[in-house]
Every structure is written in structure tokens, then in C-alpha cells.
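so my prof wants the structure for this chain in the C-alpha cells format not the other one, which i didnt know existed until like an hour ago. anyway here's the sequence
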Amino acid sequence: MRRLFSLVSLSGFAIALAVTCPAGAQDKPTAAGATLPPVQVDAPKEQPARRPAVSSPRSGRTARAGTGSRTNVSAPAAPRTQAQSTAPGTPLNTNVVAQGASRLGLTPRETPASVEVVGADTIREQGYHTTIDAVKGATGVTAGDAPNDVSFAMRGFQGNQINVTYNGINVGPTGFTFLPAETFNLDRVEFLKGPSSLMTGQGAVGGSINYVTKAPHSGPIQNEAFFGFDSYGSYRTGYGSGGSTNIKGLDYRFDISRSGVKGSIDDTDTQNLHVSSQLDYRLSETFKMFGAVEYKDYKAHVYEGTPLVPISYSGPYATSGIVSGTKVSDYNPTNLGNVTIDSRTLNTNYNVLDNHKTIKETWARGGFEWNLSNNVTLRSQTYEYNASRDWYNSEVSAFNNDPARVNNPIDRERFFVHHNQNTVGNNTDVTWDTRFLGIENRLVTGVEAYHLEFTRPAAANFPYDQVALVDPQRGYYGLLTTQRQTATIDSVAFNIEDRLKLTPTFALIGGLRYNPFTLDRTSTDVYGASKVGFPYSANWDPVTGRIGYTWEAIPGLTFYSQYATASDLSAGSMFLLNPTQKLTLTDARSYETGIKNLLWDGRAEWTFSAFDIERNNVYTAQGGQTVGIAGKVKSQGVEFSAAARPFPELKLWGNVAYVHARYADFDFAGGSFSGNTPPNIPAVVVNGGASYRFLNPGWLPVEAGFSVRHVGDRYSTDANTVKMLAYTTVDAFAFIDIPKSARFQTFDNTRVTFRVRNLTDAIYAAWSDPFYPDQIFLGARRTYEIETSFKF
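here's what i got, hopefully its the right format
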């Protein structure tokens, strides 16, 4: 697998500003001057005598935080009581309990950290089709645009320094475990910024992203379905259903989605199937249990990047505005001089004809919630995760500037890897609501344990050939010889988290995580003989945590600050480092302070944060599946986000982030990269948009809007010699809502959406893989879409 891991090291003064989509906004406007309509998720109400119940956020009942890095207890809740009142929606969705941010059942406004939630309504309105799309409206978050190069960047860090969890469960380094999927089965996406090992374990240096699937609700059965097409011939479709059954206390949710997506690069396509279901059963008012299963099937013919080419070679076909700078090939190595992207290669796929990437995943989760007393609640969840992954590609496309290679200047090299992964685990926690010296207090203590087995048959030979830059004869993979590696991780973690409300408006919030774990590795050659240094074992026992406060100085205006730490394997991957290299843990710390403000009768909201992060003992990718010691990364920045609904028909939102990240103590024989910016880290990211709903008498409700995204300059490697230039994209959409009527009695609501992505057809460099620094990934071109959705 080509993306075994993408390490980034950062260092410096950073500023980031951000604004989030109005995820809580509903489809229909309210009366003039009224607050926004309520979102479907409620904030838990403080109760010293009893902890808020757990439930599905789509049920309109209270939800609580997930149970930690390896689990997310989704046990059903008791019916709503008067104490569990419905919280009003807010433009930035800060009344939604963020499971991935705290185990204490806190909303983003109650958490002393930068927390964002992109809800199902925003996913639908903004047309975030995939799990990669869904992160792009968040403040300062970027992602690889190529559908098969999964990597995220946040607060100056990228790749495996961003934990990606699924229903709160962390299944391993993001670069080779994350599966791109459709968003139809999701309820929301949660973002926790900065070091967050307390919540998600190893690897959460830049932050974490938690994808949460749809869960059951109590009440009448609700169904939804959609189908859509685009101008490349792609299709997407899905069906979902949920509600209460005829069995008292038993609620269900079932979703299935399927897509066949074609890209703007030649011969790229993706087939995606996702089936998810869950049953919630309430045995009594004090005991609830649940069970959930999922299946995902992903198949793709992939694009592995476009080669950087000397301007002198491309001549009149040299492009401007995509890349700039000079390069010496990391693969040949010949001097390319000033480089460009050749306009004749904008749609070219250099992969072999029989390339593929396939992934199959299965999930099984089950657990319970037991209210032992009015103020003590026990929760537990057990889970099993299985994955089979296969990469079979020509992954190197490097220009060779040897004068003798005029006709076939592109060097190609194959890569194969297969994964078999199995993880089983359990997470149990106890919540105790009490009063300490007359002061309201909530304490959560928990234990997490998991066992991970990883088998990795990988290529032992790497077939090589040469092809033309224009209209290459792509050929086939050729001879494949494999060797075998395994890794086993056994981990146990002890967590404690507490919130002490010193006054009704001032709270101290903190937590600690003690996480001893062991890694056992084997590696054999093609004949089955152990390689030098194998097998071997290593173990660590990191302690991480955070401490902070929130202060609601006046109603709606909250100040917060926090200090947080994180740790991860210094190389990010279980397989990259040679056993003779010291496999140690990094340590990271962060200072953050900020303001969260809800105003204008709940119709406007803004947040601000400033942070300073430092990560030590860093390794970085140096090309060719190797890593090198980089010292430390420093990242400082500020973020600002805002959203408003000045009047019912108009919605406005935006965010801006500025970050300055740089290496320190990154010295090597012959030079130094200290002061350089890590790859793929833009200084500035800006998102914004608006929509207006037309309600003239005699018309069907029509809403039209747009969104703009600007990503600043980024470097492709640690050397900072090649710059991926800044780009701006614009999306436009309009949808028509057809309410239930005599003609449409079957459906409560029908929506027909028209959308144009990348309206200006901008051509831009979206991402670079530091392991393959001679090529870059181009962003998606203009696409026209039409989609029809139903609720019934």
C-alpha cells in the first residue's frame, strides 16, 4: 500500500481562522424574527441527581460523549422527560453533544477546546457525498482530493497525526486503515482540534475526526431515499429507515447506500457499498442495550498522481498556476530544473491497466447502559472489526531528465500490499454525578482494552518500466513476488475525566489517560525465513491528558483555555521502521484559548481560538518508503468561525484559518530543513457560503446558494523546493422542495437538487504524497449533478 503512512512534522508560529457551516439549520424557514428551528440533537441538561440519558442524536433526545478511543457506546435512551428539554438549534451546531470531544456528555460550547460538528442537514445541503468531502467545510481542515489518497491536515499536522475514528473507535494509522465511503449512512462528523490522546489514543497530535453513523430513534417510522447522477456518468443511491417497532422498547435503524463514481482522470472509477443497522432495546427505565452491524465493500481503479515535468521539456504545453519551483528527482535522480505540469497530461492516468484497490470491512458492536442509581451510570461496549485491503498499482511516475530518454521519460515502479486486520475490544466506563463540598461535579472513569492482529503480505519485487509522457502505453503489473510481515498490538487504557462547576458559570474540566501497550512484529523473506532483527517486541506506557476551564461571562458568551498533551509512534506506521532504528514515542503539548459566542436571539454565532502546539522526536517521510529523523515541529495559529441567519430566508457562514508550521532541529549530513514548512500545510484556508430561500406566493420553495473554498500555497516535500500554488474553487446549487400534496401523497417531502462543483473549472494541485515526491495529485474538475431525495 502506497500510503503506509504520511508523516508531517511542523514547527513555528501559526495562526488559523475558521467558520463552520450552519449545521443545525433546518430546511424550512421560521417566522420572521424567530430563532432558528431546533436541531435533532439536544444538549444534556445539568442534573446533579441524575446523569442525562444516552440516545441517538437523530431522535431529538439527549446524546452523550463517546466512550473513548476504542469504542462509542450508542445505547438507547429512556423516553424524554421534562428534565431533558429540547435545546434550540444554533448556527454552528454547538448545542449538539460531541461524542468524540468528551466522555462527560458536553456540547462544544461546554468543552474547553475547539470542537466542530457537521450534521446530516449540512452534509445534505452542501452535497458532501464522501467522507473526504465532509471535512472540507470545517475550519482549517484540508484533505487529499484524489479519491484513493486518504490523508487529512489540521493545525499544521497531517496524515497519521490526525486520528480518524469511526463511532469513536480508532482502528489504526489513518493513512492505511481509513476507508473512503459515502456519507448517506452518517449522522454527523465531529472535529476535535489539537492534541487529543485523552479521547482517541495514539496519534491524535493535530486533532481527531469522528464519523458517527445514523442510530435508531423512538417514535413513528421515518424513511428516506435518494438517487443522483453527474456529468461524468457517476451514480449514487441510498435508502434508510428507522423508528419504533411493535415490540415495546425496541427501536431500529437500517441504511444502505451504493455508488459508482467516475473521476476526471482517465480510467478512474470507484464502487462503494455500505450497509449499516442497529437495534436499541429498552428493557426498563434503568437498563438499555444495543447491537449494531455494518458491512462495507470498496472497489476502485485508481489514479496515483501526475508527474512534475521540466518547463524546458514541456515548452508551449507548460502550465501556470498549478506548481512552481525547482526539483531534483528523488527517484532517478536527475535535475529537472524549473518544473510544471504538462497540459497534455491533465487527464492522464499513468497506472497499469490491471490496477485496483479493494477494501472489505465488517463491524459488530454491542453494549448496554445501566443506571445503577439516580447518579451512577455504568456503560459498556464490546466490538469486533475485520478488514481486508488490497493495493495493486504502479505507484511511481517520475520524470527522468536523461537526454537519452526523450521518448520514454517517465519512470514507473509497481507496488503491492495486502492487509488482513482483526481487532476486538471492550470499553467500560462509570459516570458519577455528585456534589463535592456543595459544588456540582461529574466524574467519568473508564477502562479500554483491545487486541489487534495485522498480517501484511507485501511485494518483495518492484517491477519497473519506462513510458512516454503523452499517451503512455500503460501495460500490466507483471510478475509479483511477496513476503510477509505481521504486527500484534495489545493495549489497555485507564481514563478519568472530571467536570467541577465552581459556580453556575465557571467550570474546571480535565482528564488523564494511562495507556500501556505492546507491539510484537515479525518479518520473513520470500522463502519464509525471518529477516535480521525479527521477531521483536516493544512496549510503552504513555500518560496524556488535558486541563482547562470554561467561563460563561455573560449569557451566550463563553471564554475557555486548556493545556493538552498527546503521544504516538514516532514513525506512525507499524511496518516502516527498520528494527535497528529506535522505535520511540513522540510527545506533543498544546496551549489553547478562545471565545464562543451565541447572540442575536440564537440567530448568529461565532468562535475564536488561538493555539500553540509543539511535537518532539519526529520522523518524516523521505521518499521511497523511508523515513528520517526530523527533530520537532512547531505550530501556532488562530481560527475564527461564524454563521448567521439575519432573517429566515437567508443563511450566511464562513471560516478562515491561519497557521504557521515549521520544523526545528531538523539537521542532517549536508544540510538542514529547520525552519521549513511540512508538506501539504497551507498557511491560509478560507471557506464561506450563503443561500437564500425564495417563498413567493404560487412558487414551490426554491433555495439557491454557493460556497467558496480557498487553500493557500503548500510545499510538496520537506525540502520546500516545489510549491503547490494556492487555489480557489466555487460550488453553486439550487434545490426545489415539493411538499406533500394530492399529487405526491406517498412522500412527505421531495427535494430535487441541481449542483455545479468547481464552477470555474479551476485546475489545481490538491495534494502531495511525501513518499512519492516526483508527482502531485490534481484536484477534481467541474462536475454537474442532479439528485432527487424523498422522505416518507
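also thought this was worth mentioning. The chain has four helices and 43 strands.
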